[in-house]
Amino acid sequence: MKLLHYFFVTISLIIILGITNCISSKKTDKDAKIEKEIPIIDLANAIETSGKPLNLSDFVEYIEYIRPEYPATLVDVIFGISVNDDYLLLQIRDRLLCYTPEGKFIREIGRKGQGPKEHLGIRSHALYNDLVAINSNYNRKILWYNINGDYINQAPVSNSVFKINILDTNRIAIHLQHGTSMDNPDLFVTGIIDNNGDTIQLKKDEPYYPKGIASSPSIWNYNDTVRVLTCINDTVYSVTKNEITPAYIVNFGKYKVTREAFADRRLLQDEESKYIQSLSFYETSRYVLTMFRYDNKRRVVVYDKQTAEISAWSIKPENVDKYGLLEGGGWINDIDGGAAPTYFNSVSNDYFAINVQPEDLKAQFIENKKYISVKYPDKQQKLEKLIDSLNDDENPIIILYKLKK
């Protein structure tokens, strides 16, 4: 009887293990299938198969120039821009200014100070319909206001958070503070919190670089989602109000910064021309576009989401400044002959933006007029009229580029 009992126990265990392995196998296959289905943006291949430059008009529908209505002594540097159909927000030093989309000043949102409704400086801000959020410096809190400047409430936030995006009236996407040590236990890829500061989801991963400090993440808008790519891994994540999911894998190949160079800034500076750096993105229903620096040139890459084809081109910059930043070398602006974007600064679902000093805009326009044949002479004439009206002491002009869908 004991022998028979052991026989049945053994058979039962074999059946259970077989079922478990089958389930485990199915789960693994499913996970592998999901992972396999994540599109790959192959930047390494794009670099090695670079083609001829494309014109700005191939992707940009039109360009808007905004001349904000503020005193010349008020603004020196614009740190952040947000825009929707009704409002334009400019983040300057310790202030957040609200305008109409045409540039007429409306009011300041929030105020610097020690009070419970005040911020201690602005790390970043976000705009959603008629809601505004400010990530306050030093005191680790997000302040909510309406567009009229009325204080609503506040929520605690980690000191590791820098940029934020409002996902809806009760959800915020949070992004990693640049300069965070890679061995910091608070290191994260991206996250979702509610307006009480409670965590809805926090995406963490074992960092590819065990030493060094985090660089600024690449963040852009696409429809109702926020996309984010960090140096922690090579995955672009899609952040909605409810979940964080992988959207793309980026293949850097041999052009990815090595662990040694990432951990040693002096080595990185010596070898920076070997690696892809300073990525920025924008996305339409058909394409993902990215700009980055490689080999002391500015590269522009177009990834076709329907065919998975990728193409790239590069334009050598006019100059490299004392900080090692590239000046010029962006797209050819064949729309109106004005400034071409040198990076993608996603400010809404419809626009990316740059700000440019009036004298630089004027200089670029004069130079471009010599050798660029524009498709829309009437737009060129309109821009020339704007440039001629600019004062010597004028502050930065906001340029919005609307991409074709």
3D structure, described in words:
- This protein has 405 residues and is an alpha+beta fold.
- It has a domain of 142 residues: TolB, C-terminal domain (Neuraminidase, 6 Propeller).
- 20% of the residues lie in helices and 36% in strands.
- The chain is built from 6 helices and 26 strands.
- A hairpin with a 2-residue loop joins β7 and β8.
- The termini are far apart.
- The N terminus is likely disordered.
Which terms would index this structure?
405 residues; alpha+beta; Neuraminidase; 5-stranded mixed sheet; 4-stranded antiparallel sheet; 26 strands; 20% helix; 36% strand; disordered N terminus
Helix content: 10-25%
Give the class from helix and strand content and strand pairing. Answer: alpha+beta
CATH class of the domain at 109-250: Mainly Beta
- Outline type: globular
Tell me about the largest β-sheet: 5 strands, mixed
Under the CATH scheme, which architecture of the domain at 109-250 would be assigned? 6 Propeller
CATH topology of the domain at 109-250: Neuraminidase
Secondary structure: number of strands: 26
Overall mean pLDDT: 86
Low-confidence stretches: 1-34
* Cα end-to-end separation: 76 Å
User: What Rg, in angstroms, do the CA atoms define?
Assistant: 25 Å
* Order of neighbouring strands in the sheet with most strands: 1-18-17-16-15
CATH superfamily of the domain at 109-250: TolB, C-terminal domain
